[in-house]
């Protein structure tokens, strides 16, 4: 598989004009741009090669759910990928594995590609609980898609993002990320019959991207901070060779 780069803008930028510029400089085949909901339209009209992503969704299809956005709404808008269960949503918004499982199902059945984010905190890692945490996040996260058609299930991707590596400037080593990626593929395959692509995320930038994407077990990267800098984006895309 070709390597995939997913640019997670998080709650940035503040102005549409900046979103506009950033989208233009991120428009490469093999890239997914995930802006905040308010800029989806802005970005959608600009992208010719890159695909559109969203950073979250709600699991119900429509109705009285103030402030939420459904998978169908995103799909009808041209969104192809959605990030689900990011550690910021787990930690800041209190999303549980059960909530995330419903979102994964909703995304896949609406025809989106869902990127399930998993990763251990520093404390969990220190306490030798990494595998236990990932096992729980994955097993529950995919628990609602066992009975959906295999072709629908196959739209699932996983992003391994150790929480201690996100936004800290200290990524996981590429070798350990690759080992974890293999472990994740095996575990998911045991549950739902196929090994999904696994992205690595956490302090990826132009200095280290190559070390990750050159490994066969790492199918791409989920990038936050560096995706907001035009020059970084250019270098990262070049180093990933997906132009
Ligand atoms: P970072 O964020 O690249 O800024 O570490 C990654 C993410 O949160 O997805």
Distance separating the two termini: 15 Å
Helix/strand-derived category reads alpha/beta
Low-confidence parts, pLDDT < 50 over ≥5 residues? none
List of distinct ligands in this structure: 2-phosphoglycolic acid
Instruction: Please provide the ordered H/E string of secondary-structure elements.
Output: EHEHEHEHHEHHHEHEHEH
Q: How big a fraction of the residues is strand?
A: 15-25%
Largest sheet, strands/sense/barrel: 8 strands, parallel, barrel
Task: Please characterize this protein's 3D structure.
The structure is a single chain. Helix 5 packs across helix 7 (130-141) and helix 7 (130-141) crosses helix 9 (174-192). 44% of the residues are buried. The chain contains eleven helices and eight strands. The longest helix is centred in the C-terminal third of the chain and has 19 residues, at 174-192. Helix content is 41%, strand content 16%. The mean pLDDT is 97. The chain is α/β, with parallel strands linked by helices and 243 residues long. Strands 1-2-3-4-5-6-7-8 form an eight-stranded parallel beta barrel, surrounded by five helices. It has helices at 16-25, 40-46, 71-77, 87-92, 97-109, 122-126, 130-141, 150-153, 174-192, 209-213, 230-240; strands spanning 4-8, 31-34, 51-54, 79-84, 113-118, 156-160, 198-201, 220-223. 2-phosphoglycolic acid (PGA) is lined by residues 8, 161, 166-167, 201-204, 222-226. 2-phosphoglycolic acid (PGA) binds next to strand 8.
């Amino acid at each position: 598989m070709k390597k995939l780069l997913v640019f997670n803008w998080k709650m940035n930028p503040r102005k549409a004009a900046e979103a506009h510029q950033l989208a233009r400089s991120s428009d490469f085949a093999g890239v997914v741009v995930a802006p905040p909901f308010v800029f989806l339209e802005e970005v959608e009209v600009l992208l010719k090669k890159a695909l559109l992503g969203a950073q979250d969704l709600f699991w119900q299809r429509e109705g009285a759910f103030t402030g939420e956005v459904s998978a169908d709404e995103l799909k009808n808008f041209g969104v192809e990928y959605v990030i689900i269960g990011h550690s910021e949503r787990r930690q800041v918004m209190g999303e549980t594995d059960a909530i995330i499982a419903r979102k994964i199902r909703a995304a896949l059945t609406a025809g989106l590609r869902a990127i399930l984010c998993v990763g251990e905190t520093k404390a969990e890692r220190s306490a030798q609980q990494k595998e236990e945490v990932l096992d729980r996040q994955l097993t529950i996260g995919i628990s609602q898609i066992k009975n959906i058609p295999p072709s629908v299930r196959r739209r699932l991707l996983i992003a391994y993002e150790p929480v201690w590596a996100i936004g800290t400037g200290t990524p996981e080593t590429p070798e350990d990320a690759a080992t974890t990626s293999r472990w994740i593929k095996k575990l998911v395959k045991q549950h739902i019959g196929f090994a999904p692509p696994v992205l690595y995320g956490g302090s990826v930038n132009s200095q280290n991207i190559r070390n990750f994407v050159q490994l066969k077990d790492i199918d791409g990267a989920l990038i936050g901070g560096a995706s907001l800098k035009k020059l970084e984006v250019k270098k990262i895309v070049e180093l990933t060779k997906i132009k």
